[in-house]
Amino acid sequence: MRAFAQLMHKELGQAGDGEDLADICAGTDRYAMYRAGPVLSISHGMGIPSISIMLHELIKLLHHAKCRDVTIIRIGTSGGLGIKPGTVVITDTAVDSSFKPRFEQVVLDDVVVRSTELDKDLAKELLACSKDVPDFPTLIGHTMCTYDFYEGQGRLDGALCSFSSEKKLEYLKRAYNAGVRNIEMESTAFAALCGLCGLKAAVVCVALLDRLEGDQIRAPHEVLWEYQQRPQRLIAAFIRKQLGLCPPAGTSFSPQTDG
Question: Which candidate, 251, 256, 202, 258, places its Cα nearest to that of 229?
């Protein structure tokens, strides 16, 4: 997230080289947070519990800081579904493992079901911005969010596997037919919490592989490195457009982990 903050520091024409950007949350191991102009770059860890904790605390921070017209965008990596590796997916709706647009959470002893619709206009704006970075494919589609990386995502290569290869492919094809184009582990909670708090939100993830073709990522490191820059480049173009800025000359992009 420091690398992404440094990228935005340069993209926004801030003074200096960005090397002195400090982790606002230094002293805690919960997450890292950096600020470049009006942009916060925050790590959220892996999975729904981790991102939920971060979002609760971030939203409280934004409230006390009296921030207005906030847009929150999750960027990161994902497994693709029926799409070419390296494709950037802009989520229109986050769905659960049954392909339903819902997030179920136990509150006290009640199961609460919350909507996972994301801002459609924001998704369209992001897709329009992808034309400014035309050297990789970008599309809008559903994102399936799971609670588990292995069996929960139909993988055959975990420590346990309770289904056949045929059952796995049948499930993933049903997901594709339901409009799912990528799979990750945070989007339903992200969409539900942002929606409840009235925040404009989007999820933009690059697909590292096509899960219909296998479970293992086989692309070389340098290819994966470039793939991971793609959501950053798209979001940088979007932020510049929102602020009425032109891209700086000689911009280079640094890799990132999920954030």
Answer: 256
Give the model's pLDDT for residue 244: 87
Angle at 147 between CA 96 and CA 166, to 5 degrees: 75
Determine contact, residues 186/48, Cβ cutoff 8 Å: yes
98 is written with which tokens? 């049954």
The answer to whether 72 touches 194, Cβ cutoff 8 Å, is yes
Candidates 214, 206, 220, 187; CA nearest to 77 is: 206
Residues 123-177 have pLDDT tens digits of: 999 999 999 888 899 999 999 999 999 999 999 999 999 999 999 999 999 999 9
Q: H-type helices in 12-91, by residue range?
A: 48-64
Relative orientation angle of helices 187-196 and 48-64, to the nearest 10 degrees: 30
Q: How much is the pLDDT for 221? A: 94
Q: How many CB atoms lie within 10 A of CB 106?
A: 8
Is residue 147 a contact partner of residue 48, using CB atoms and an 8 Å limit?
A: yes
- Residue tagged 């404009």 (tokens): 200
Q: pLDDT band for position 232 (50/70/90)?
A: very high
CA distances from 220 to 31, 81, 106, 137, 229 (A): 29, 20, 41, 19, 15
The DSSP call for residue 27 is T
Report d(CA 228, CA 222) in Å as an integer. 10
Q: What is the dihedral of CA 9, 10, 15, 17, to 10 degrees?
A: 100
Mean pLDDT of 20-49: 88
The upper half-sphere exposure of residue 37, i.e. CA atoms within 13 Å in the direction of its Cβ, equals: 17
131 DSSP assignment: G
